[in-house]
Amino acid sequence: MSEKRELVLILDFGSQYTQLIARRIREQRVYCEIHPCTVPFEKVRELNPKALILSGGPSSVYDEGAPQVDSRVFELGIPVLGICYGLYLIAQAFGGKVERANAREYGAARVVVERPEGIFHRFSKRETLDVWMSHGDRIVSLPPGFATIGVSGNTPFCAVGNTESKVYGVQFHPEVVHTPRGSDILASFLFDVTGLHPTWTPGSWTDEAIEIVRTKVGPDEHAVCGLSGGVDSSVAAVLCHKAIGDRLTCIFVDNGVLREGEVEQVVATFRENFHLNLIAVDEKKRFLDALRGVTDPEQKRKIIGKVFIDVFEEQAAKVKGARYLVQGTLYPDVIESVSFKGPSAVIKSHHNVGGLPERMNLQLIEPLRELFKDEVRAAGEALGMPRDLLYRQPFPGPGLAIRCLGEVTEERLAVLRAADTIVTSEIHKAGLHEEIWQSFCVLLPVRSVGVMGDGRTYEETCAVRAVRSVDGMTADWAPLPYDLLGRISNRIINEVRGINRVVYDISSKPPATIEWE
Ligand SMILES: Nc1ncnc2c1ncn2[C@@H]1O[C@H](COP(=O)(O)OP(=O)(O)OP(=O)(O)O)[C@@H](O)[C@H]1O
Ligand SMILES: O=c1[nH]c(=O)c2[nH+]cn([C@@H]3O[C@H](COP(=O)(O)O)[C@@H](O)[C@H]3O)c2[nH]1
Ligand SMILES: NC(=O)CC[C@H](N)C(=O)O
Ligand SMILES: [Mg+2]
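Structure tokens predicted for GMP synthase [glutamine-hydrolyzing] (517 residues):
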């Protein structure tokens, strides 16, 4: 696959924005990959990139042990763009000097175009650009062969370049939305400087991906796929089905903590509309038995993950000739594990079926591992999948169990399910389903006194949660209209026995998380 398409390589030095650089480049319909800055030079050569981008990063290039770049990448003769830390690396590598600046700069700044060439090809001389800065270092002397192409109030070396060798660097961040013309700068780098072609799309990618799966799975071999009905596993399943047809068996587990009507919906969609080989297993009792009496969030998650694996293993063993496991791993999942950034703290143990392969001797097939979520949706569209499936809100593997705080019982799940259905339908009716990243209910083991029909009630509390997010990593609570909130609250209290109070969660992530457990 990598031979045909033109690749831009992004080396990650730990910037918060590295994934954004990739997003912006792919938006220009150019394929790119992020690799950690520690990637061996041989690998870089093998990837055969047409251009190189060096990301920002938290270190200072003059620090001891600061991440470096193998200087042989500069001898590949391909255009290079350094962003912030990347700029300083370039300056240092070519004989310039970088020091701590007197004043750190975070936030909005202005750059004046000195020379409208190279990455500033699409601007005119003296044009002023709004840009976003986030740095504490600066260049004090420019390497030979480099010239200033943009200046800011703070430094004459805000954007620099060596036109002959096509090596450029900027102190600001063209990849963030707060640099409104950032895309023009990246476009100049990709098209004017490097001469790439804007031909890559997630749609054009699907044909190649199908071909790869087809080649990988031999004519007598089979693959299994854990299908949740969520976006990622659904697109992965449909894609693999196109590649190997009936040799794909999907396993859908009813774990007892799914939403109202979910089982019927998933089975109908995939069996009837997509004609997928689908085994739906009813393991409600097994999961709920294992969860009985458990209230600790991490314990709940671990139990569910474990039972999932057991069930999956049993089912996969029944599929004759199964040698492969299809997973809907996305690019951010891949990047999390290879990024230059050090290990991060475990906030919660996310369930996925990643523990399976080792134990089952199945080889992994991860057809979506190069894509971002919105690209997965576009690929799904190219595969002819319906919009209402592709634009579903994410739903966690441990399901309602982590939204039913306290003990998970059938009774409490029924209450939660009913309340959740109301939120979902009201959000749909208000036309907000796609705009909101996730909207759902959480059942709290907190009882309070109410009065209904002149009688006293003493029932549990429902928290409504609705957040806006781009990737689930950070999120803002959504300012839903008061009348919508009012309707939701009224309906839940009137229609759902067991809840007599509704509260709205107005916490963002961080410091809260999206799910309550
Ligand atoms: N009920 C289930 N039955 C079978 N497999 C499941 C089930 N729930 C989760 N999985 C597996 O766990 C993986 C991780 O779940 P996750 O929620 O991250 O992805 P998804 O459901 O495919 O997509 P989305 O993020 O849109 O919900 C799924 O891709 C699927 O393979
Ligand atoms: O497949 C999943 N298995 C899990 O165990 C899990 N826990 C959280 N989520 C989803 O991940 C996103 C971030 O959630 P948090 O802010 O609660 O960590 C949100 O979209 C959550 O719904 C999960 N998805
Ligand atoms: N955003 C960045 O790449 C910052 C680089 C370096 N840590 C500085 O403070 O200047
Ligand atoms: Mg899901």
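The chain is about 35% helix and 25% strand.
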